[in-house]
Amino acid sequence: MKNRISFRVSDDLSKQISDAASKSAQSKSSFIRSCIQKDLAIRQFRSLRAQMMPIAEKNGFLTDEDVFRVVP
Questions:
Q1: How many angstroms separate the CA atoms of 5 and 2, rounded?
Q2: Per the structure, how many domains does the chain have?
Q3: Does a structural domain hold residue 1?
Q4: Residue 5 belongs to some domain of the structure
Q5: pTM exceeding the 0.85 threshold for the entire prediction
Q6: What is the DSSP string of 10-57?
Q7: Residues in CB range of 6: below 8 A, 6 or more apart
Q8: Is residue 4 part of a domain?
Q9: Is residue 2 situated within a structural domain?
Q10: Whole domain around residue 36: which residue ranges?
Q11: How do residues 18-65 score in pLDDT, each as one tens digit?
């Protein structure tokens, strides 16, 4: 089931959304959905990263290079 969410934005933000959607050949709705999905994915990644960092550090993984030495 699809849900509708309505919210208000400033004229400036509305123009930015319209311009960016046009440049990416998307409707405004599709563009906004994509932006929200990307933001939620980034938030989830950061949350998982914050949970895993203490475990990684405890096991000696402090840098990308530490990981690359172990992962083929």
A1: 10
A2: 1
A3: no
A4: no
A5: no
A6: -HHHHHHHHHHHHHTT--HHHHHHHHHHHHHHHHHHHHHHHHHHHHHH
A7: none
A8: no
A9: no
A10: 11-70
A11: 999 999 999 999 999 999 999 999 999 999 999 999 999 999 999 989
